[in-house]
Design a protein that fits this description.
single chain, alpha/beta, D-Maltodextrin-Binding Protein, domain 2, 2 domains, 8 helices, 12 strands
Amino acid sequence: MLVHPLLRLLPAAAVAALAVQLPAAAQSPMGEGLPRSELRVCADPNNLPFSNEQGAGFENEIAQLLGRDLSLPVKYFWFPQIIGFVRNGLQAGRCDLVMGTVAGDELMQTTTPYYYTSYMLVFRADKPLSADLDDPALKSLHIGIISGTPPSDLLVRHSLMVNARPYALTVDTRYESPAHQMLTDIVDGAIDAGMLWGPFAGYYIKHDKLPLAMVQLQEEPGMPRLAYHIAMGVRNNEPDWRRRINGAIAKNRDEIAAILRNYGVPLLDEQGALLRP
């Protein structure tokens, strides 16, 4: 069984407890000073909207953009987003860059963030809902949630779990997409709303032209984070390589934002407010 990509957005300590890391001495097989002839990217072969083997994800497009800036052809090491993704790819020296991870990830050194996004409340456009989870209108609704993701705690706090519909976190992504299924169920009326990671929600609403709308879920004291800065990951002892990637991100920030918007990714400003599309 593969692990749903949202696992990478669980608290870093929880993920680290499940993963087996290599010793620090084994984390730089290439050597920091060796010349690079390729931009070797770790990527999931079936993980839209992020990446796939056909190059149809926004991480694929951003990798190509960085490759052009660095004058390096892009080469992929394909491995599913499961426990061991970093260990078998980046740390084993089969690739040199992870395109998307939470800034500050404990399994690798992260770059400066290149986007900031959040979990969203999704609903039918003709049946708008408030982001206020104490709204009495929500009490009788069936709300979809991917099990174990941060908004689950909000459902419990606001007594909304009784009518919630769980979707699996751990799936074989070659055959299942809980995020896509949740959105389809909202369209069909099987559920009334869903709490979903913004890049999934925005991508499928735009790509599939779904009659859905979304509002940003607001963080609450004592609850898990809902908004995350997303960065890229490199090996811990390669500061020069990290600086090169940071330079390419800074130089191409507008182009990166345009790619993200084209995929429907909801973007936040540095105060955590949702930016206009």
